[in-house]
Amino acid sequence: MFRGLAVLAIAACCAHAQDERRITSPNGQLEFRVFVAQSDQGGLSRLAYEILSRGKTVVKTSYLGLLIHNQEPILGQNVGLMSAKTTSGAGYRGLIADYMQNGSIGRRLDLEVRVFDDGVAFRYVVPPSIALDEILIDDELTEFDTAGDIRVSEVPRAGFPKMSLIDGEEHVRTTQLAQPFTGNTPLVCPWRVIAVAPNFSPNLEK
Description:
Number of helices: 1
Mean pLDDT: 90
CATH architecture: Distorted Sandwich
Low-confidence stretches: 1-15
Order of helices and strands: HEEEEEEEEEEEEEEEEE
Largest sheet: 7 strands, antiparallel
CATH topology: Beta-galactosidase, Chain A, domain 5
Number of domains: 1
CATH class: Mainly Beta
């Protein structure tokens, strides 16, 4: 019986961390995890992330995605990992993960992550595809399930609407764009910045 319970526990863990990739800061103290998971409310699986500092979770499972005008599901739901590669630069280690949305006409979404010793930055990159040659984004649906003194901000990008954070239940905040966005792919979205230390101010010019 205990063996059966152990198997079930392992299966649940694997389901939670489908297609999981991890990247740590240069000093090894901060870790970013990205994976595909299903929320407690059910529905389609969705791209998600967590952040740990010294082994302690500082951002709990939070979901990622973009609401595309007149296209379902959310760009970020029902995705599978196509490829992933690590990067590095001044003061950070990085990850670029490429996802394909199943059941769609080739909709893709890349997530670019940079993990510094004192914080994390990530952004969406939408590659060109038949379904998203012209892209109309009604809103952004990025979650931050944080507690304590974790600060969230953005690095604005010319032509892309600024975000605000909407408070939800139990420390969960969700991005909301000031207005819809219309443009073309490839599209590079603004950096979303999560500061674990008070004075975190990364250089994200590129």
